[in-house]
Amino acid sequence: MRFKKLDLNLLVALDHMLADRSVSIAADKMHMSQSAMSNALTRLRTYFDDPLLVQVGRRMELTPRAEAMRGPVRDILVRLEATIETAPDFHPRESNREFTILLSDYTQSVFIPEVLALARNEAPGVRFRLQPQTAHPYSLLERGEVDVLVAPEQFCSPEHPAEQIYSDRYVCVVWAGGALAAGSLDQTAYQRAAHAVMVPPNEANSVESLILAERGIERRVEVTTFSFSALPQLIVGTDRIATVHKRLADQAVAHLPLVQKELPITLEPLHQNMQWHSYRSRDPGLGWLLDLFRRAAARLD
């Protein structure tokens, strides 16, 4: 199919190449040979009279024209996908639809079990694909690659609908057999102690790290991990402190020899939002999923 003499099939190839800045990666994603993708790039270059991707050292870079096209091309395809994939109605009990959710391992541990428990009774055939957050989680949402993002409000995009579903606060956990287990924990002891801290694999910062840094609170970090849920396990048998979400601490204390302590610094609560692409707001299947999230959040308390 052509529009103004452009083969519209090439738009999908262009979208992948602009996103990945790679002919070979785009070819893999589209299950095409590299030569076929190179041919598509040649045709696009001819049509737009622009090289689009150029070799700079070992990397491919976008030309100014290609950079300007990246957002609009993705926007067109997301609109098209939303129109095609949105069925006029949705019957949970009869559906085998797969929903892709972008979330942290903390959310996966404390919230998603409630979601799955509700879904078991309402939609036994519905499938869930859980993916880890990236440095810029809303970018995957904007590309239409995920259905819902569950993230702190700081990491949501102002361009798409978002709704707070639950809040949590921060506490500390220490080993029950350690020096910090007895008595209360003051700020001086907190800052002098060694800490185990979650550092996202994408080199972003966790919310509590951002807040503590803004307050000028420095921690003596001895252990870092990529997982929130692993933090409590990593301090067992040590005199380290882990600053974690209260719901995660409650789970850990129930199964590990840990003591929960109040954080000696007042931090704003963590507000978890769910966010979805504005073009999918009329999708009845997504509407069911969002309502499922609301009801699962109500069960947390």
Q: What does the largest sheet look like? A: 5 strands, mixed
Q: N-to-C terminal Cα separation, in Å?
A: 53 Å
Which stretches are poorly predicted, pLDDT < 50 over at least 5 residues? none
**What would you call the structural class?**
alpha/beta
Mean pLDDT: 86
Shape estimate: globular
**Number of strand elements:** 14
What is the beta-strand fraction?
15-25%
Helical segment count: 12
Radius of gyration: 23 Å
- What order do the strands of the largest sheet run in, or round the barrel if closed? 6-5-7-14-8
Helix content: 40-55%
Assembly state (oligomeric)? single chain
Order of helices and strands: EEHHHEEHEHHEHEEEHEHEHEHEEH
Architecture overview:
By secondary structure, this protein is α/β, with parallel strands linked by helices. Helices cover 42% and strands 23% of the residues. The protein has helices at residues 9-20, 23-29, 34-48, 64-85, 105-110, 112-122, 137-142, 187-192, 207-214, 231-235, 246-255, 284-300, and strands at residues 2-3, 6-7, 53-56, 59-62, 98-103, 127-132, 148-152, 162-168, 170-175, 194-198, 220-225, 241-245, 258-262, 270-275. The protein has a five-stranded mixed beta sheet. A five-stranded mixed beta sheet has the order 11-10-12-9-13. A hairpin with a 2-residue loop joins strand 1 (2-3) and strand 2. Helix 2 packs across helix 3 (34-48). The N and C termini lie far apart (53 Å).
